[in-house]
Amino acid sequence: MPPLTPPDVTTTGTDRRDRVGLTVIAVISVLVVAAVGVLLLGGRPLAATTTLDVSALPALNAWLNATSALLLASGYLFITRRRITAHKRCMIAAFVTSMLFLLSYVVYHYHAGSKPFGDHGPLRAVYLTLLLTHIVLAAVIVPFALTTLYRGLRGQYDRHVRVARWTLPMWLYVSVTGVVIFWMLYRL
User: Which CATH class for the 20-114+121-186 domain?
Assistant: First the structure.
């Protein structure tokens, strides 16, 4: 019978912190997706009573999405060149930019509701396809982005890279299609 040895405190503590961290990520993800879902499906709660002018927010949202996409692409280029500090700064800035987008998006839709797409021709099918894929991946990206950020900041680089390989293309797609959807709704 092997001798009894105490458990590795570092591993046990790390595993416990990971369980807590990933649980927090799951809770935040569910709350964000649920809040946006209720907001979009629940109608326009303040549209009739609000005096807040939110007409500039769709353009701000597109700018924030474009900025996030550029930061994500830059961060990816930095990591391929082993410029870790620049990569980290870009990815944190992309995350902050995306959170500012989310805040602005929620404020806009809370006060103004959703804008329907006006074209009923073949372009409508393109728009609806982009919108559907954008919405689904926007919901999926929340836990992926949080987990990728968490793993990177915790120094769990092997785990960070495994999830980042999925996160980056989805996040880029959501950011770029956000700009395209804005353009189709407000500039066509």
Answer: mainly alpha
The first and second tokens of residue 181, run together, are: 């959807």
DSSP conformation class of 42: S
pLDDT tens for each residue of the chain, 188 residues long: 455 444 444 445 568 888 998 999 999 999 999 888 888 777 555 555 667 899 999 999 999 999 999 999 999 999 999 999 999 999 999 999 999 999 999 999 888 888 888 877 888 999 999 999 999 999 999 999 999 999 999 999 999 999 999 999 999 999 999 999 999 998 76
DSSP 4: P
Name residues whose C-beta falls within 8 Å of residue 159's C-beta, 6 or more positions apart in sequence.
Answer: 151
Considering only CA atoms, give the Rg of the chain.
20
Residue 156 structure tokens: 């769990």
Q: Which of 150, 159, 19 is nearest to 95 (CA)?
A: 150
Is the CB of residue 14 less than 8 Å from the CB of residue 155?
A: no
pTM for the full model? Answer: 0.85
Residue ranges per domain, the chain?
20-114+121-186
DSSP tag of 46:
S
